[in-house]
Structure formats: C-alpha cells, structure tokens
Design brief:
Blueprint (H helix, E strand, L loop, with lengths): L1 H16 L1 H22 L5 H34 L4 H4 L5 H33 L5 H10 L1 H15 L4 H16 L1 H10 L3 H14 L9 H4 L7 H28 L4
Helix pairs in contact: 1-5, 2-3, 2-5, 3-5, 3-7, 3-8, 5-6, 5-7, 5-12, 7-8, 7-12, 9-10
Amino acid sequence: MTPILAVFVAGTRELLRSRVYLNLLAGGFLLVFGAWVFAELAPDQADEILIDVGLAFLSLMTAVLAGVLGIVTVTRDIETREVHSVVARPVPRATFVVGRFLTLAALVLVSNLVLGLVLSGLLLTVGADGAGRLWFAAQFASGEGIIVAAVAVMFGVASSSTTSALFVGGTFLLSRLLPTFAALIESDRFGALGSQVATVMYTVLPQLFRFDLSAWVRGETAADPAAWAMSLLYAAVYVGAMLALATLRFARRELR
C-alpha cells in the first residue's frame, strides 16, 4: 500500500497545482451557475429546471473532468517517461494504475462535493425545498465520474492521448444512450442480429444512468436504498474490471 499511496499523493498534488484541473473546476462553476440562470428565466418551474439542468451539467462536468484528467495524467507520464521512476523500482505496474485511478477518484469526489454544495445553495435561493436531496444526488453522481476515470486509465495506459480521447468520449456518449438501446431491444426493432449486438453493448458499456437521481430529488419517485446500493456495487465491480484490464494492457506495453 505504501507505493500506491506515494503514487496517489504525488499525482494528487501535481493535478491540484495544474491549470487543467483548475480550468475544469472553473468550468463546472460556470455550468452550475448557468443552470441557475436558466431557472431564473422560468420562475414557475425554477426548482425543476435547476434540479434537472444542474444535475445534468454536473454529471457532464464530472465525466469530462475524469476523462480529461485521466488521459492527461496517464498518457503524459508515459510519453514523458516519468512513469519510469515508478516502474524502475521493484514495484508492480499495477501500482501506477491503481495510484493514478485513486487520484482521479479523489478529485472527482472533491469536485462534486464543492459543486454539489453550490448547486444546493442555488436551489435555496429560488425558494425551493430539497437542497439536502439535491446535494446527495450530486454526490451519488460521483459514481459516474469514477467509472469514466477507470475507463480513461484503461485506455490511457496503452494508447496515445488522441486515441484515448476518442475511445473515452465514444464510450461516454454510447453509455448515455443505453436507456434508448434497452427500449429498442424490448420492442425488437433491431431484429435478431441487431438485438444481440445491442444486448452486448448494453452489457459491456458502463450503465451511467444508474447514478441519475433527479427524479427522486423532484419527488417523483420514492427513495430506494437497495437500488442505490446495487448501483454502488455495480460501480465497484465495473471499476475493478477496468483496472484489471488496464493492468494487463500496461504490463504488455514496452516502455521506451
């Protein structure tokens, strides 16, 4: 654990000082306040707009932050040979993979904590209830960002930054369409072969929709702790699979 902790601390310190992270966090603040502006344009539905748009923007920002930082920190360390200082020691390459992932996960949690507090405060300014539920939903959305971070590490350890960005972005966009895939599969509109392909995609791609609690925040659905626990378990299993695959891919990569 000591080498993993060292990689985690060094990576976190480095990213906290970087302009990339600060710029992304500033963009998150702008998006959250943008949701408040939209809400002010429709006073009769201000609370619903702020909840829906605010959580959507926060979710997008979380995924972008996790994906960009994951690609930047992993591929940069490999391409600039900084990773040699880690793997040259008697330390498994999995140490680098896990350490970098923990850095990304921590930054996602911190960012959502701050942005969630801001979003909840803005909900109070429009005179609506549910600030506590909104903050909880914002933290729960961290699961989406953590999964995206694991996907970014998996692609980043063995691909160029451009290729990684394309695959991570494509994975995120397709994952957002999974509810539509599920509806089409149930209606059998793909045909036999198409349904099989869609089913494979539904199984392999991360089910990011599990971490959207906007309907619960609006009071349209009841609290479901069992479903939330299953979503967290799903995130843990998916992240574990991505990190295992990342370790295998990194082990086969020749460092020059």
